[in-house]
Amino acid sequence: MDTLFEISNLRCSYDKENHGRIVLDIRHLVIPKGRKVFIVGESGIGKSTILEVLGLMNNTIVPDPATRFLFFGDGHPVDILELWRRNDDRELSGFRRKHFNFIFQSTNLMRNFTAYENISITRMLQGYDKESSFEKAEKILGDLGLGHIGRDRMAQELSGGQQQRLAFARAVIPDFTVLFGDEPTGNLDSDNAVRAMKLLSDKLSGLEGSSAIIVSHDMHLATAFADTVIKIRKEMCAGGGEGEDASFYGLIDQDCVYNVSPDRGNWSNGRQSYTASDFETFLKRRSDER
What we know:
Elements: E1 3-12, E2 24-32, E3 36-40, H1 47-54, E4 68-71, E5 78-79, H2 80-86, H3 89-99, E6 100-104, H4 115-124, H5 130-143, H6 160-172, E7 178-182, H7 190-206, E8 211-215, H8 219-225, E9 228-231, E10 233-236, E11 248-252, E12 257-260, E13 266-268, E14 273-275, H9 276-284
Parallel strand pairs: 2-11, 3-8, 3-9, 6-7, 7-8
Antiparallel strand pairs: 1-2, 1-4, 4-5, 9-12, 10-11, 12-13, 13-14
Helix pairs in contact: 4-5, 4-6, 6-7, 8-9
């Protein structure tokens, strides 16, 4: 299977200039193309940090000559560290626009635009015409249970849950190499969360080599839809105190990466294997219960 990201010896800090505390340590991670990848773990363990790192949203990478960070979107390796070193905002924005799309728990919808305009604008920016984009939006809205919404309906007139589904539709309508999601179904009920994930699965099936990387607290959704689950481990910082004063960081290595079998009956990281039901229980287990 082709590689999407290849990372080793990468550490993140939000105060790297002053040698601040490490919040995430990626010792080794290979993410293949064409997969739905869910990232799970306890609160404060670095889930949003890894999304920022992979999506080039925030450069928290601690400089280290041993770090390797490659992206294979077009098949040829791109050195992400070199992109950051050049510090060209226009180049970084163009790279993100070409390869990535994002969806967050906050909808960030444009209040003065209609629902259709909000959804279609990302596709129109890729060069598609308005009418074909609206037709695509109509199909997606139907898949999300919002087929009753007319083309003139303003986004601000919709309920919170409807707006969340609208934001999800906007994220999946354009072409992309990677879709990054930070709790994209967090404000949806279980039925609509499943609808959204089915829509994403259909989208990936129609975009050869495209992938989705989703941060989620919903372990049932992860085991039901993910091809790969990355469970970030919690590790205590050296000299990080004790009890409530202890400080921790997130750690990712290949033992944290679990892949599902073709029949979705088992999950394995190459050393440990779980049935589907046992795997969901394992994901819900806190690191300090090991």
